[in-house]
Amino acid sequence: MTKAEKTATIEALKEKLSNVEHFYLADSSTLTVEQVNKFRGLCYEKGIEMKVVKNTLIKKAMESAPEEKNYSAIYEALKGHTAILFTETANAPAKVIKEFRKENERPLLKAAYIESDVYIGDDKLESLASLKSKEDLLAEIIMLLQSPAKNVISALQGSGGQKIAGLLKALEDRAA
């Protein structure tokens, strides 16, 4: 790789890192080409972008980021073979890795970066896979907010609601 290619790769990584809030680092070193391609396909289906990049280039791209990004906590995971998985949904890569590992022993989770929080080690995979996405949390909040209104409507539509409607009608007729 020439110096110009390295510089271009670093710039592309800087751009990508500045536009995502979640990414994972994984070790897929013992996978065959066929297995890696299958894993890439799974990632692509779930909207995850996978890149295999040299650790030094990843680190250089991270070093130029603002300090509040907290990328320095990830540096210890930048050893050996590294695939970086970019995602919009925090738990998607963990679910894909978990699904893929039902038939394969890798990839191993090296680190995950979720909105400035860093998770190091493969032992965090289960907890990361069980994280709820923003969409899931919003759906739960909406459901909870709708629940009281649904209870009132169902009460009004039930037999008790007919009695209330009858009383309101009688009061209206009496006032007229």
UniProtKB/TrEMBL annotation:
GO molecular function: large ribosomal subunit rRNA binding
Stored InterPro entries: Ribosomal_uL10, Ribosomal_uL10-like_sf, Ribosomal_uL10_bac, Ribosomal_uL10_bac_type
Keyword Transferase attached: no
Superkingdom, natural source: Bacteria
Annotated transmembrane regions: none
An example Gene Ontology biological process: translation
Family matches, as Pfam families: Ribosomal_L10
Keywords of this entry: Ribonucleoprotein, Ribosomal protein, RNA-binding, rRNA-binding
Cellular component aspect of the GO annotation: ribonucleoprotein complex; ribosome
Family recorded in the similarity comment: Belongs to the universal ribosomal protein uL10 family.
Main function: Forms part of the ribosomal stalk, playing a central role in the interaction of the ribosome with GTP-bound translation factors.
Oligomeric form and interacting partners: Part of the ribosomal stalk of the 50S ribosomal subunit. The N-terminus interacts with L11 and the large rRNA to form the base of the stalk. The C-terminus forms an elongated spine to which L12 dimers bind in a sequential fashion forming a multimeric L10(L12)X complex.
Database matches in NCBIfam families: PRK00099.1-1 (NF000955)
Protein's UniProt name: Large ribosomal subunit protein uL10
Source species: Phaeodactylibacter luteus
